[in-house]
């Protein structure tokens, strides 16, 4: 695969906490325009991989490039939806203000959001079905509504690559369908999406690319090629029987 067609390239990435490896010697190439799931058991390093790519966690070895350049030079091309549990939902702010924060990266520190940015924030809220709640305090929203707001914040950035850490965690079925439909729309628009995901049954339905991870990379590639019992067994240690061809 040529460098020009790679959205993300990870080389020899190793991360350790208290000298215990959490990720070990990860090589990963993610082509542009795929909707990719990262799957693996608890403690496999899924969230750590995303945070290392984004520079939130510093690896002890290895390098990451976004479209062939260091992440620090490509920040504006990347949007991130963190795990819901890592967000302070008691912070006194409205849904509209949270989404508006997504425009700050393109404005810089000096400029304030104007009418253009406010319009984009409202459009993003409408896209995720949260426009009627624009003035609601985020602490007063349900878990699914909060997740939609954070998705809207990512959408307003109009990024090329979206990283999402368990976006379906704690949401109802209606919200999950709404979110995956938006992700598929983004993929159709040529965006690249990397999603930490835990429900193996929905992987073939939701994604076109998958990475199996358990401290080491087990396999990565198109669903039809690598989502099989052999890789599931290597990743989870038990023989998962997942109906791939439903």
From TrEMBL:
Keyword ATP-binding applies: yes
Pfam family, one: ABC_tran
Family per similarity comment: Belongs to the ABC transporter superfamily.
Protein name (database record): Metal ABC transporter ATP-binding protein
Keyword Ribonucleoprotein applies: no
Keywords annotated in UniProt: ATP-binding, Nucleotide-binding, Transport
InterPro entries: AAA+_ATPase (IPR003593), ABC_transporter-like_ATP-bd (IPR003439), ABC_transporter-like_CS (IPR017871), Metal_Ion_Import_ABC (IPR050153), P-loop_NTPase (IPR027417)
Example GO molecular function: ATP hydrolysis activity
Organism of provenance: Membranihabitans marinus
Residue ranges annotated for the ABC transporter domain, each copy included: 8-240
